[in-house]
Request: fold
Amino acid sequence: ANSYSQIHQYALAQQDWLKTFLKLPSGIPSQDTFERIFALLKPTAWQARFLVSRAFYFWTDRAV
Reply:
């Protein structure tokens, strides 16, 4: 996804799957909510977690 709108559209398309592990009492958040959440994330912390998740992806033969 290249925009908050695309993130929102993807979440809407994957709503049934997301509900298997997320509580979404108000449904999928709006694109504005996604933008606010990402604005609160610290880039270095986000990068570190992303890199760890990518490492697990390769270590587990893409089973993550």
